[in-house]
Structure formats: structure tokens, C-alpha cells
Amino acid sequence: MCAKCNDIIEEEPITCADCSNVIEENEEQYTNSNDEIICESCRDDYSTCENCGSLEASDDCTFIEREEVIVCSSCCDNNYFTCDCCNRLTSDSDQTTTCNGNNICQSCYEDHYFTCENCNEILHMDCYNQDGQCEDCYQEDEDIDGLHNYSYKPTPIFQSTIKHKRSKTIKGVNVESYRNDQKLNYLGIELEHSIGNSSKSDIIEDVYSKMHNVYYKEDGSLDDGIELVTHPIEFNSINWQAWNDTLSYLRSKNCKSYNTSYSCGLHIHVSKNAFGNYGLLKAHLLCAKIEKFLHKISKRTSSNWRNWTAPSNINYSDANSFRREIISRRLRKQEQISQAPRGAFNYTGNTIELRMFRGTLDLEGFRSCVEFAKDISFIISQVSLTYLLTHSEAEIESYVLNNLRAKTKDLLAKTNRIDKQLGLFQGKTTGNDDKDIVPDAELSF
Length: 445
Known about the structure:
By secondary structure, this protein is α+β, with helices and mostly antiparallel strands. It is built from 14 helices and 22 strands.
């Protein structure tokens, strides 16, 4: 009704924006995403977005198969993408962009792509080479002169100052020659270290100029490191001055082997013959009996020690059960011993590898490990299984200490910060606190 003339004013009827029919007062009405009113009949042509709740024409909505939801065009454009690999709509939260700009879903990434550990680019598996690297990065490493992949195994060069004369007749002429005796006991050293502030190529070139009969390999267990490996060398032929020059050089380039964010190791291979009969078996038993002592010698942290000295599954509880296991498991052949892949002593065919030592670029720390490897192999060759089975930890530890050479004892005393009269060489331990096994010489780098 008009306030001035009191005439009745008829209201405009409400019509549906889609069909233009009048919507009666008692009829349901709806507002679509364009703020338009539609009737109940036309409502059947609309869908409710399960993301924002708006009402949109069904023809303009999209069904997201992965989530089994219906979304409006706005939400689809703003919150979803089409995977360039499988062509399926996927939430933006699961989007990954590859090195060539393709947007892929998480499922396709897991099934068909990888992230290169070197350049951190996301690439298709067709570009994968090995060691977690893409073809380009792997080729770059291969292109570094003198750097080999982890599986590289050259023909060994046996180095010894002990030469054996041999004679043979060639075309009626007696020819004498001298060769290294491969039946001698040899060592092979593997030292892992970080690169520091230099390039791999510079490090490798400079180290090769200081040492002979060594080579570098990539190591997949290191974030940014390489592994220096020697050819087999007889102990008395080791050039300690060359090692001193090399380790000093690596330290000067800020390379590290001891204090790293990952676990670098010093692995020493010793000829299998040096351990005598049942060598690996006795080595495992020795490790089980004097684990605390060997832990201290290794200089590894408690967690690293557990990771690198996983125990054998052989029962050492008493002599009788041990002998029964030898028979039942046919352990007379050393290679048949069942062991974890990262033990303190590993059988590798012609050698037994001591993997217990923490890496170091300190000459005294480095040499103490090499000297100890030589001594412990000889001790194991001399001790009997019966002795190891029937004597206590303290007795076996004392036996080992009494049979170490004076040079080895002196080096171990220096690099373990323990007075040989008060600590280590009385078979005592100072606990498992990591700081008790950090050599002074390493604290400055």
C-alpha cells in the first residue's frame, strides 16, 4: 500500500533465472553461484560444490575421480591441476614439477620419477643411471679423471719390498725376473672422506700426485664424499710419509673423515691367510667377547658402533653348543658363516675386511687402526677357538693387549686419550659416552 494515496501496490513476481517461470510463494527457491534465483525444478540441473558449497550448473561442475568429489569451475581452476603424466585431475597439494616443467601428481612421481641425489632435479626414471644419480650427473662424475664408480674393481697391483726370483727359459735363453709374492699377507685400505671446499677433480689430481697405486671411487653412502682405495700392499711396504703428506693436504682443503654429518669409515682388508684356520669364525667370537674394547679402538659413536658391528647369529654361549653349531651349519668353510652385512669383520673372498674403524685424517689415528689390523689378524691366527670359548672377557682382553706390538700400544694410547698405565691397557673402559673416544688430534678439524 502506498503511504500517500493508500493504493495497493502489487509486488513484481519472482521468476527463475533459467526457465523464466514465476516461482510461487509456497515453492522452494535457490540461489546459484551467480547470485541468481532458480526454481525447484531447475535445481535438478545444478550440483553443490563439495569444496566451497556453492550451487553451480552441473554441466559446469567437474567430478574429481581421485577424491570422488564434485567441485565448481572456480574451485577446479584454483585448487586442482591436470597431471601431465596420467592426465588425471589432482589436488594442487600433491603437485610436483619436474626439471622440464611438467606438473605431475604424487602417484606418478612415485611410480615413474625420481629425484637425483646430486642435482636434486626431478626426472623420469628413463634418465636414472645408478647410485641415485641421473645420467648427466653420473656422467659428470665419470668424466672426472681418475674417479670411478662404486663397483669399480681393477686388477690388483700387489706391492711388496719382498721380491721372489724366478727363472724360465724363453727360446733357449734362461731369463731371470723378480715378482711380488701374492702369497704374502697384504693389506688394502679404504678411506672415506668429504670433499671440503675443493672440487673432486682437484682433490683427486693432487692426491694422485702424492700417492702411487691408489684410486678414488664414488661412495653412495656419503652425501658429498669419495673413497680413497689402495691396491694390496704388504705392511712393511707402506709409505707413511706419503700418507702423512696426503692426510695433511686433505685437512688443508677442509676435507673431513672423522667429524662429518654422516658416518665415514676406515675399512682395512687383510689377506684371509693372515687369520689362519677358522679365521673369520674366531674373529666373530673375539668381537662378541671383547666388544667394549673393540668399540673403544674403533672410535665410533655408540650408535655407529651398533650399526657397523651387527652380531653374527652364531651361538657363543658355551663350547658344546658352539661346536654343535659348527657341525650343524657346516661352518668349516668360512664363507658359509651367516652374518649381517655390516659386521666388524666381513668375509670378502680373498680377504677379511675390518669395517669397525671410524674414518680419520689424523696420521696417528689412521696409523693406529692399520697397525691394530695387522696385529689383531696375527693374534686371531694364534689363539684357539677353545681359548676364546672358555676364557672371560677380561682374560681375552688381557691376552690381546699382551700380544700387541709396542708401536701399536703407543699409537692407541695417544689416539684414545687414555693413559696406557691407567686405562686402556689394563682392560678398563670409560663407558659408552661418545666424548670418551674422540681423539685429541681430531678436535681441531
